[in-house]
Amino acid sequence: MSLRVLETFLPLGIIAGFLCIMGNTQYFIHKAAHGHPKHIGNNVWDVTMERRDKKIMEMLSSSN
Predict the structure, then answer these.
(1) For the whole model, what pTM was predicted?
(2) In a designed cystine with 30, which of 6, 38, 50, 54 is the match (CB 3.0 to 4.6 A)?
(3) Is the CB of residue 27 less than 8 Å from the CB of residue 37?
(4) What is the largest CA-CA distance in the chain?
């Protein structure tokens, strides 16, 4: 019985390990490409709004 349990841990460990590797790889690729980690669910629209907000804040700070 205990051998059967140990047989299930090996595939689960491999799957969990590869999921961690894939997540870390994606994190480091986004960090290298953008200079900071990408937020989850951040798409093109969010990036556009972020740039717009940054531009507005710069315009407001330069006018003061």
Answers:
(1) 0.54
(2) 38
(3) yes
(4) 74
